[in-house]
Structures are given as C-alpha cells and as structure tokens.
Design brief:
- InterPro entries: NAD(P)-bd_dom, NAD(P)-bd_dom_sf.
- Helix 3 (about 80-100) links the parallel strand 4 (about 65-70) and strand 5.
- The two termini are about 25 Å apart.
- The strands form two sheets. This protein has an eight-stranded mixed beta sheet, with helices on both faces. Strands 7-9 form a two-stranded parallel sheet.
- It has a single domain, classed as Rossmann fold (3-Layer(aba) Sandwich), CATH 3.40.50.720.
- It has eight helices and ten strands.
- With about 230 residues, it is an alpha/beta fold.
- Mean pLDDT is about 85; it is low at about 5-15 and about 30-40.
- The longest helix has 20 residues, at about 80-100.
- Helix 2 (about 55-60) crosses helix 3 (about 80-100) and helix 3 runs parallel beside helix 6 (about 135-150).
Amino acid sequence: MATALIIKTRLLYAPRLHHHHHCYPLLFSTTSPKPPKSQSLKSKKVTADVTKGSDKLVQAIGDDSEAVICATGFRPGWNLFAPWKVDNLGTVNLVEACRKLGVKRFILISSILVNGAAMGQILNPAYIFLNVFGLTLVAKLQAENYIRKSGINYTIVRPAGLKNEPPSGNLVMEPEDTLYEGIISRDVVAEVAVEALGLPESSYKVVEIVSRADAPKRTYEDLFGSIKQK
C-alpha cells in the first residue's frame, strides 16, 4: 500500500509505517525539519499546500496512493483565518482529492474537545485556549463532519494533549466526546494512525486517545473493536 502522509512541520516518523507501507510525505511547510538519520524516509518527498485546492493535491498525492493520513495544523500566529483555511478547508480539499483519485482510506488526526460545547466543556481552559485564535476546534469539527458525510472509509483519531517525550503508560481509547483532559506522546498518536490503516475494526469510527499509567495494555484490535460505529 502506498500511503500519503499530509503533514505540517513535524512528521510523526513511525517505523511501522515505513516497514509495512510505501510512504509519500507531503510537506505542508517547506521549512519542515529533516528526519533523524536513524529514521530517514526511504521514499519520495513532495511539497504541497492543502489550502490551494484539491486539484493540486491530486497531483501531489499521485494515483498510486491507497490511503492518506492527515496530520496538518495551522501555524500559530495572529491570522485568525488560518485555522479555518488549514484545519477545515484544507482537510476538505484533501478529502476531495482522495475522492478524485479513488483513494478509499482516510485517517485524520484531530483533537479531543472539538465538540466541547455540546459536551458541556465550553468553560474548559483547554477548549477556550485552543479556540481563542481562530476557533481552531470549531474548524476541526467542521472538517470531521465533512469527512463523515463524504462516503470515504475514515478513522478520526482525537488525541489528548500532545507531548514530544517518549511514550509512558498504556493507551486508552474511548468513544467520541468522552475525554476532556490528559496527555499522550506524539509517537503513540503516530502508531495509532498506522495501526488503523490495516484494521477493519477502525473503519468509520471516531476515537479519542490518551495515555494512563494505570491502564491495562490492550491490543489495537481490542481497542478499536470496543468502539461502536455511529
């Protein structure tokens, strides 16, 4: 399987992805750091911009890709329209590019609390902080809703707060609109996205993930299988 990774400034270098899949990283930022030598990508690298429409993304993704993992995010700043352009419209452009190419598998890295208002978490400090510059979580939720209606075989992964440190504790996976706090390593998020590619139990599901020291270790089949489709 050829997998296109759509990223911004930091690719999640998951060894299992490059072991089992031909990978085509599409860099949203031309200033993205190079991967560590120990994890150098054995694949081509293409620069693309998710905000420039689906046709250009079609060219970047290519007709040999069978899946797309979307891990984009806007660059923090004072442009209040950036989250809407990247996290909402940019993701929509990717979905449309996939539909034009016949790509049938789409993994989106989103965030917990995207539906915070409906969860009664509108005063949650994390919900307020993430929405203060351009309604980031609102933009992500709009993109999620588009994906659900698109007909594409999707898995939406909503991680808790991201950390760069190595994983600690065990993975906890919950249904949508369940988690409202917690931390998880970016490495674990990457692994979840990769595992979702090959598991039918992950299809057409929204999952929320966090790491907890007291959680039992479970297989990915068990974790994804425990979440019901809606």
